Amino acid sequence: MASDELKLLGTWTSPFALRVQLALSFKGLSYENVEEDLKNKSELLLTNNPAHKKVPVLIHNGKPVSESQIIVQYIDEAFSGTGPTLLPTDPYERAIARFWAAYVDDKLLASWLQSFRGKREEEKAEGLKQTLVAVEHMEGAFKDCSKGKPFFGGDSVGYLDITVGCLISWAHAGEKLYGFKIFDADRSPLLNAWMERFGALDAAKKVLPDADKLVEYAKMRQAEAAASASNN
Amino acid sequence: MAAKEYLKLLGIDVSPFAIGVHMALVMKGVNYEYIAEDLSNKSELLVSSNPVHKNVPVLIHSGNPICESLVIVQYVDEFFTGAGVPSILPADPYERAIARFWAAYVDDKFFPAMAGIVLVPTEQKRVQKVKETSAAIELLEEAFTVCSKGKAFFSGDSIGYVDLALGSLLIWIETIRRMCGLEIISASKTPRLAAWAERFGETAAAKKVVPEADQALQYGKKLQAAVSAAATSKSK
């Protein structure tokens, strides 16, 4: 039986690449981690994700899979005999997990990014408003999915824990940079507790980047943006 | 004794997302009740079944609501299985990943670009949307060659996941042609997709579900009028 070769093209700051690393870590799979320079994309990245030219890309025995949520589902299905099963087995629970996973990227993450990246103050304010709505929905989702247990997946980590879990380091970094805690204890006590719990797991600690390093990185990017703006 | 399975689909006739779900249910041969919503006056059932987005389509199965068209199609595929029941997604994990990738591409890149052609308020933005749509359909033309492997549909001999995702937009591709003369799929620029589109339209599921393009045209004109009105009142 041929051994599986797994290569992950990503960047240490990308929550989407982290999402895949979390899945690989929780499944107990070995892989080669390739750090891309997005200002100088490798031939490997460009040929393996020609449609989007983005990270992450998982290359399994030479065959590429792109888009983080699709990659995580692929890992779960291709390695169904290895480690825990990430997606629920019941079709209805799977549909609920997929619904909320789509919501995380389309609504929660999108509005959160707008709240600090928006070009005008009113854009940022709108982003913040939408983020608060999204967090409220996610808190409800956690309550419904966990049914009183510690994770979205129940007793153990599942698809949705990994989908949301990749935001944790940036959640901590965001608090230090902007004073805004996305999963605040008052607004979202369940998610607040879940975040600490998830972050303490060995499989998560293995791959979660250091929040302070993300803060340094963000400050460096802000300085670069300011410098190029004043040069124009 | 188990409760009788009861399926209700909330949608609107011209919604490509509802059309995709409709077709999936027809392909599976299951019985369901279709409820046409009025989006300007949403029903209590719709709002309570999809409190997060308050939008169509929603599939309600024995009282349990499922939302988001691609999530619903995967649910229908996974729940309704058995001898003689066609599969919508392939069995192989890698082929599933490829199918999911292209369906997501249709939803996240192609559809917003194409919808933008009639919905954006300025000519400059419209030109940008036309460019994006062109680039996207070119990529999909290539994807068709790779996925179909010489067969009739993205999925092979019969329609599958990507066919549903792109095929349910054909009525709007035709509507855009009628509204502004732009041919997104054409025999000259995208010959394979043009041939595929004809074959898609001839399938039993498409013939049963897809409404006349005229219906979409009326709806499209209303949407465009609303966008112009909003743009005009903004500039006052």
What's the number of domains of chain B?
A: 2
- What structural class do you assign from the helix and strand content of chain B? alpha+beta
Q: Largest interface, and how many residues on either side?
A: A-B, 22 and 22 residues
Largest sheet properties of chain B = 4 strands, mixed
Integer-rounded radius of gyration of chain A:
18 Å
The ordered string of helix (H) and strand (E) elements of chain A is EHEHEEHHHHHHHH
Please identify the oligomeric state. heterodimer
* Topology-level CATH name of the largest domain in chain A: Glutathione S-transferase Yfyf (Class Pi), Chain A, domain 2
Protein model, in words:
Chain A: One of its GO terms (biological process) is glutathione metabolic process. Chain A: Pfam families: GST_C_2 (PF13410), GST_N (PF02798). The complex is a heterodimer of chains A (232) and B (236). Chain A has 232 residues and is an alpha+beta fold. Chain A folds into 2 domains: 6-78, Glutaredoxin, CATH 3.40.30.10; 91-211, Up-down Bundle (Glutathione S-transferase Yfyf (Class Pi), Chain A, domain 2). Chain A is 59% helix and 7% strand. In chain A, strand 1 (6-10), helix 1 and strand 2 form a beta-alpha-beta unit. Chain B has 2 domains: 3-79, Glutaredoxin (3-Layer(aba) Sandwich); 93-219, Glutathione S-transferase Yfyf (Class Pi), Chain A, domain 2 (Up-down Bundle), CATH 1.20.1050.10. Chain B is globular and about 60 Å long. A 4-stranded mixed sheet of chain B has the order 2-1-3-4, with helices on one face. The interface between A and B is medium-sized, with 22 and 22 residues.
